[in-house]
Specification:
It comes from Sedimentitalea todarodis. This protein is α/β, with parallel strands linked by helices. It has ten helices and twelve strands. Bound molecules: adenosine-5'-triphosphate. The site of adenosine-5'-triphosphate has 11 residues, from β4 and α1.
């Protein structure tokens, strides 16, 4: 089992640090529907952590609790060693948590570069008033933000489309632009909601490589939901398995693969 309090070393030699986020006994209800029942798990620094489970298991709801979009009726969210008080999603984003969405949420009429720049908004320090009063300061911040956006664009190999309106891009590239926008916020924790959904094999391979490269190059901790089991098992260091709102498995891909509850609930059935 991988539960050493100071972290662990992965099979491929990457050092995983201490706990960066901890969900403690989370219960989330929508009226009479209990989407999440008493779930606890942690996410460690530098880790790629997957949340899997059949349709309706509560995975997106859990991601929405992490990102502050939903407030659970019970339980505690701990981030960087402190209990997180109730916060609005933009405040959570300011704390270094960025996300992508299951259904692409980009500004279709805007260029790739401008979309990626919107990822900097949560990090901007200069308000409108000081922008008016201190033009120089605002310009310096704009330049710094643009530099970060360009760096991310280079890293994800989308320079050639930086001026192209998003509406003209194929699906796989839109997903990559969404990843770029999330990365532009320089997050500590990156949440990916089905990053490969709807992609062909080649696009999935590209996306997997970029996720691994982001983790490796920037040390970004990543939590992701994904249905493609091959992808999940290849990418992830540890996997949480949910079923009907409950946690039925938690461990390395090998541990999860051989867990009978998981096999019964999920792995024996095709969800593509
Ligand atoms: N906003 C909501 N209002 C009411 N019920 C909801 C809401 N969001 C989710 N649910 C319910 O909570 C349960 C968990 O849904 P959730 O979308 O979190 O599952 P999921 O594992 O992400 O599913 P999928 O793989 O299909 O995306 C489902 O029964 C769903 O109908």
């Amino acid at each position: 089992m991988l539960d050493a309090s100071e972290g662990y070393v992965t099979e491929d030699g990457r050092k995983i640090g201490g706990v960066v986020m901890e969900m403690k006994n989370i219960t989330l209800r929508f009226g009479g529907v209990t989407a999440i029942t008493d779930i606890s798990f942690d996410i460690r620094e530098g880790e790629i952590r997957a949340i899997i489970g059949p349709n309706g298991a509560g995975k997106s709801s859990m991601l929405n609790v992490i990102s502050g979009f939903y407030v659970p009726q019970e339980g505690e969210v701990w981030y960087k060693g402190s209990r997180r008080p109730q916060m609005r999603p933009y405040e959570v984003a300011r704390q270094g948590i960025a996300r992508t969405f299951q259904n692409i949420a980009l500004f279709e009429g805007m260029s790739v570069l401008d979309n990626v720049m919107t990822g900097r908004l949560t990090q901007m320090k200069t308000g409108l008033l000081s922008q008016a009063l201190w033009k120089g300061k605002a310009e310096a911040e704009e330049t710094a933000n643009r530099d970060i956006a360009e760096k991310v664009i280079d890293f994800l190999e989308i320079q050639h489309i930086r001026k192209t309106p998003v509406s003209r891009l194929p699906y796989g590239l839109k997903k990559r632009v969404e990843l770029a926008r999330a990365l532009a916020a320089e997050p500590t924790l990156l949440l990916l909601d089905e990053p490969m959904a709807g992609m062909n094999v080649e696009e999935k391979e590209d996306m997997s490589r970029f996720i691994l490269d982001v983790n490796d190059e920037f040390g970004t901790t990543i939590a992701l939901i994904e249905h493609d089991m091959g992808v999940v098992m290849d990418l992830s260091d540890r996997v949480v398995v949910m079923d009907y709102g409950k946690k039925i498995g938690d461990g390395t891909p090998d541990e999860v693969r051989s867990n009978q509850d998981v096999i019964d609930a999920y792995l024996g059935v095709s969800h593509d």
